[in-house]
Amino acid sequence: MNLFVQVSSRIVLSKKIKSLLCSSLMIIFVIGCAETTSNLSMRLDKWKGKSTSELVKFWGQPKAVSEHSNATHYDFDYTERKTKDILLPTTSDGATVLKLHPVMIGIKHKECRVTFYSTVVGEISHVEWHGPDHSCSLYINSQPEAPA
After folding, report:
1. Rounded to 5 degrees, what angle do the CA atoms 138, 144, 145 make?
2. Average pLDDT for consecutive 10-residue bins of the chain (148 residues)?
3. Which residues neighbour 73 within 8 Å (Cβ) at sequence distance 6 or greater?
4. Buried residues in 30-44 as b, exposed as e (16+ CB within 10 A)
5. Residue 86 CA to chain centroid, in angstroms?
6. How many other C-beta atoms can be found within 10 angstroms of the C-beta atom of residue 1?
7. Total Cβ atoms within 10 A of residue 49
8. In angstroms, how far is the first alpha carbon of the chain from the final one?
9. Which of 10, 34, 52, 71 is the most buried (most CB within 10 A)?
């Protein structure tokens, strides 16, 4: 009987430890995601007050530019598609050989859009980003920071 009480108390203790561990990991995950979101926004906010010519110089040409009466929007998109190399017959100089060709499988894998809003005089006034935190984190952190 004494052995049964020891075993059952260990099982209860083990369940409590598992529950506490799971709760702790969930809290760490949520805090980690919030910190990433905050860091990305702070990194992009450093572009406020900079010129759009500096933006294009450092980030390259935007995917789209739309002009409005009081602002211009510069859209930068990142899309990573999943591909797989497949051997396909290729004819070159009259000979057919097998060559690896990348073939897209599935749909968009990762994506992120960053929009810079500029004033009429070409100064960045606002920045927004949309997409999964992880994809945007990879994209935004791969881009140059705003010059000092």
Report:
1. 100
2. 55 59 47 60 93 94 91 87 78 83 66 92 93 82 88
3. 64, 65, 66, 115, 116, 117, 118
4. eeeeeeeeeebeebb
5. 28
6. 4
7. 10
8. 74
9. 52
The whole-model pTM stands at 0.59
Name the one residue in this structure whose structure tokens are 């499988």: 105
CA-to-CA distance for 116 and 118, rounded, in angstroms?
A: 6
Domain ranges of the chain: 2-142
Closest CA to 91 of 101, 99, 82, 102: 99
Calpha distance 9→93 (Å, rounded): 78
Burial of 121 (0-12, 13-18, 19+ CB in 10 A): exposed
Tell me the two tokens of residue 14. Answer: 């083990």
* Helix %, strand %, coil % of the chain (to 5): 40, 40, 20
CB 100 within 8 A of CB 82: no
